[in-house]
Amino acid sequence: MTTAADGTGTTTVAMITWTVMIVALVALVLFVMLGFYRARYSADREARYRALAEEVGAAQTRTAESALVTADELIALRTELQANRAELAQVTKRLTELERLLSQIG
Question: What residues of the chain score a pLDDT lower than 70?
Answer without folding.
Answer: 1-7
